[in-house]
Amino acid sequence: MSKILEGLKYSESHEWVKVEGGVAVVGVSDFAQKEMGDITYVDMPEVDDEVEAGEEFGALESVKASSELISPVSGTVVEVNSELEDTPEKVNEDAYGAWIIKVKMSDPSELDNLLDAAGYKALIKE
Amino acid sequence: MKYYDKLIFELSQEGRCGYSLPVNKYPAAPEVPSALKRQSALRLPQVSEPDVVRHYTNLSQMNFGVDTGFYPLGSCTMKYNPKINEEMAALPGFNCLHPLMKDELVPGVKKVYEEMNKALAAITGMHTFTFAPCAGAHGELTGLMLMRQYHLNRGDLARTKVIVPDSAHGTNPASAAVCGLEVVEVKSLENGRIDVEALKPLLGPDIAGIMMTNPNTLGLFETQIQEIASLVHGVGGLLYYDGANMNPLMGVVRPGDMGFDIMHLNLHKTFSTPHGGGGPGSGPVGVAKHLVDCIPAIKVSGFHGNFGVILRAYAYILSLGKDHLQKVGQYAVLGANYIKECLKDVYKLPIEGVCKHEFVFDGLINDGAHDDVPGATTLDVAKRLLDYGFHAPTIYFPLLFHQALMIEPTETESKETLDAFIEVMRKIAAEAAEDPMILHEAPHNTPISRPDETTAARNPILKFQDTL
Amino acid sequence: MASLPYLPQTQADVQAMLDRIGVNKLEDLYSDVPAQFLHKGAYALPDALSEQEIRDYFASLEAMNTRLKVFVGQGAYDHYTPSVIPYLCSRSEFLTAYTPYQCEISQGTLRYIFEYQSMLCELTGLDVCNASMYDGPTAAAEAMKMAIACTRKKTRVLLSATLLPHVVEVVKTYAKFHGVEIGMLQADGGQTSLSALKAELAKDDVAGVIVPSVNRFGIVEDHSGFADAIHAQKAVLVEYCDPSALAVVKTPAEWDADIAVGDGQSLGLPLCYGGPYVGFMTVKKDHMRKMPGRIVGQTTDKEGRRVFVLTLQAREQHIKREKATSNICSNESLMALWVTIYLSLMGPQGLKEVNKLSSDGAHYLKAELLKTGQFEDVFPGQPFLKEFVLKYKGAGSLQEKLEKAGYFAAYPTEEGYVSFCVTEKRSKEDVDRLVSIVKEG
After folding, report:
1. Does A126 score more than 70 pLDDT?
2. Band of the pLDDT at B258, cuts 50, 70, 90?
3. Contacts of B451 in chain A (CB under 8 A)
4. Residue C380 is part of which domain span?
5. Looking at residue C265, which CATH number applies to its domain?
6. Min CA distance, B18 vs chain C (Å)?
7. How many C-beta atoms lie closer than 10 Å to residue B196's C-beta?
8. N or C terminus: which one in chain B shows less Cβ crowding within 10 Å?
9. Mean pLDDT for chain B overall
10. What is the model's pLDDT at position B1?
11. How many CB pairs below 8 Å do chains A and C form together?
12. Neighbours of chain C (3+ CB pairs under 8 A)
């Protein structure tokens, strides 16, 4: 059974969002990291890059696969988790601790399009 | 095969030398000014000639080639590489020629290119070939450049998309992207063929063309090719043929006759040149008459392509002649169907019916999963085959099936070899049903066991210097 | 007709297999092919030849070509090939293997690629090398695409006018279809001009700059100030190199280049009318994830032994499909082995001696040619190694005159200069005779 945290928002492409003021902290769900297996690299944007809801902002790589990271919100990247550059396995170890990017949201109403924990649980049907 | 652990750097001894050069009779030239000189030490190995010979001989003994044993790697057409071809390609009268020598100085070379062009045109039904591409993917890229050039020459600038089936080789969409085309995927039907109804709405004035391989990557003939060709041509698009799967059509069907406008061939697959552990290959591109004018604008390699590979392929074509061509295709198809029929009661065959040169199983029928023990996967089957002295088939491709196991025997394998392979595949299926752990832990008899690929990717060590 | 010894099936085998499949005849295996596509009649091909006939025919083709002593380089150099190399490369375990997908039975291939990567990193000074590219020009084209991928938002790549013409043509072809604008950097005194570079960089749209380490005039270029200017614009510096010369000239790393590319042909590969050769690419570690092609890495197996695998594969076409950095899959692996064995035999000292012999020979030839009074030194004082250009003041085509005497030399450049190259394979007697033919007029 994958872990799903209450109080977070989820996208259908398996990213989670934690809102801290006007900033969205974005990572991938425990379900997503399990599906990927051993993550070997996290391809991340740079600070000040613009991201758009529904658009790719990076990728997770395993030995035999590459999976796009889709931004759940639009805005400007204010921080990336540079720790993941050398230790991508942190995403496997703690998917909700290993945030990937922080985005200053340009349209917080986009959060309404995301799922809550119950909705996400229904989506992955475990 | 035995494990051998040295790298050439580890044999190095200061002052040892493996070369022999003539005495320098010239006056000493001025050295390069110090600002332009190499500053850093040059830590290449210092080894003797016998050191080198023994080291690389030892390395070779950890390798499996077509000359070692059966190599049913799907989509790769690992047929026997004739030895006469090697000797012909090594002739000094070809090897010593500088690529910038004028045509008048090298009529023997020009004759090879001309006759190869004629022969490939006859075999494929295309009009003319360019020999510049050095590999299959390079040929695809060249072919797509020709496709775009054709539209550009006609002032037809809106054609920015290319249709690629979901079963296509990974190089197809990658080549399209490198060529600046947007990839539009068309789905396959349950029967493994292109969904013509799904194709129709994708067609329009923005379509440059479609990339297909026929038979497709499931080894199935695209029976509706005529309708597909007329639909694509009907909207002004062109048909590209990925020649990776040409072998079963040798002497039986010509891509040009099916309506393809552009195609590449893999001389290192269909035309028997050795794959060399990943090249050199050669990927000549053939075009129909209406595209011949586009060729000169496309310069994709330094000189004249991989001439040495073209020489080998030409020797092969001369050995086939018109007499044996058809047997190549027919026997390739015969072998594939034979293996398929002999194994389909133990491996899942997702699509019934006659296949061409290859076919795809979707894993084991009984993978042996029980209690907490997971079932044997396609990867496990592949690794277990290594224990029994066979190369593995292509695995996890095409992406249409989760446990794809793609088998291509080629025409140069005897019935005895196929029977031995079938027996081992059945034995592996029985092992899986009984105790999948044997397969999970395979291979057991190879020079090394399964590697830790995750660590390799997380903490890349990509050169000897990284280990010092 | 001659028989074909590569097909093992007997009539009985064929029948037994057809029976097992449940069809009557071979043609039935094509029952799914629409009838109008089944080829009717004989193919327009010659009759099958026996092995002896193939041998005789190739001998006749070979004999038609003119064998000349090669005094031309221009991207293909006639260096000596030690006999050990073809001997080892023809071992069938190397020759008849596919790409090393099953690492447990391809450690031979994987190990030599790792050695090759190590050697090319050593020559160029950079961090990461891939398992090879098709040839030098296509490696440069891949570097052009990489420059765009590494810098984002920048759309133009600059090429030095001192690059070999075939490199420029291939890069331009790729760029045209990939949607990249190419700018040419003019030369000044036979070298890439720093002031021209700065002027172009000021336009703020440059993703990368490709310059030759030793250029098409044979001149060893001075790239002082290039990297600083280029990096200030967040663009990448690509050095196009003759890897043999890197034993003696400043390395791409020493110029602070981001990417090095070139053709490994100068490392003992026969001329063979232009191929197979082997392109190489090495990069700084920062750009590793954007690098095209296969890469071999070291790891351990379950018993803890050192083993080698294809790694960082998530960059590649079979996983990323249209999002891959490149479409390359087959490369020039066997030629990479060729280069690896060459560099093992030569070692640091041998490679330096090859450079010294070639350079001494070229300087001697240039001096002797100038003494004839028939040439003008167009780039006096510019440093060079084995290749140089002169302006021929005599009448008629010097190239043709030398051709008749058995030499391939005095290759014309687009400026109307004549280019010469001397390698260690040319003896002083060869050089003296060439000069005497020039003198005879």
Report:
1. no
2. very high
3. none
4. 69-79+347-440
5. 3.40.640.10
6. 4
7. 14
8. C
9. 97
10. 85
11. 19
12. A, B
Distance from CA of A67 to the nearest CA of C (A): 9
Same domain, C112 and C38: no
Q: Which chains touch A (3 or more CB pairs under 8 A)?
A: B, C
Q: Which partners does chain B have (≥3 C-beta pairs < 8 Å)?
A: A, C
Q: Is it true that the peptide bond before B460 is cis, omega within 30 degrees of 0?
A: no
Q: In the predicted model, what is the mean pLDDT of chain C?
A: 96
Tell if the CB–CB gap between B37 and C63 is shorter than 8 Å: no
How many domains is chain C built from?
3
The size of chain C, in residues, is 441
Which pLDDT score, from 0 to 100, does residue A79 have?
A: 96
Encoded tokens for A17:
């969002």
Nearest to C319 among A41, A43, A65 (CB): A65
Query: What are the pLDDT digits (tens) for B439-449?
Result: 999 999 999 99
Partner-chain contact C51 B84, CB within 8 Å:
yes
Q: How is domain B83-320 classified at the CATH fold level?
A: Aspartate Aminotransferase; domain 2 (3.40.640)
Domain ranges of chain B: 8-60, 83-320, 330-454
- B89-139 pLDDT per residue, tens: 999 999 999 999 999 999 999 999 999 999 999 999 999 999 999 999 999
Report residues of chain C scoring pLDDT below 50: none
Rounded (to 5) percent helix, strand, coil in chain C: 45, 15, 40
Residues of chain B neighbouring C411 (CB-CB closer than 8 A)? 100
- A63 and B457: CB-CB below 8 Å? yes
Torsion region of B245: left, alpha or beta (phi above 0 gives left; psi -120 to 50 gives alpha): alpha
Walk me through the domains of chain A, giving residue ranges and CATH numbers.
11-105 (2.40.50.100)
Say whether both C127 and C244 belong to one domain. yes
Query: CATH for B330-454, among 3.40.50.170, 2.170.130.30, 3.90.1150.10, 3.40.30.10?
Result: 3.90.1150.10
This prediction has a pTM of 0.97
Measured distance CA(C193)–CA(C228) in Å, rounded: 15
Q: Which two tokens stand for residue B41?
A: 């030490």
What is residue C315's predicted lDDT score, i.e. its pLDDT? 83
Q: What percent of chain B has pLDDT over 90?
A: 97
Do the beta carbons of residue B203 and residue B237 sit within 8 Å?
Answer: yes
Last residue of a domain, one of C292, C325, C340: C340
For residues B280 and B264, give the distance between their C-alpha atoms in angstroms, rounded to a whole number.
Answer: 16
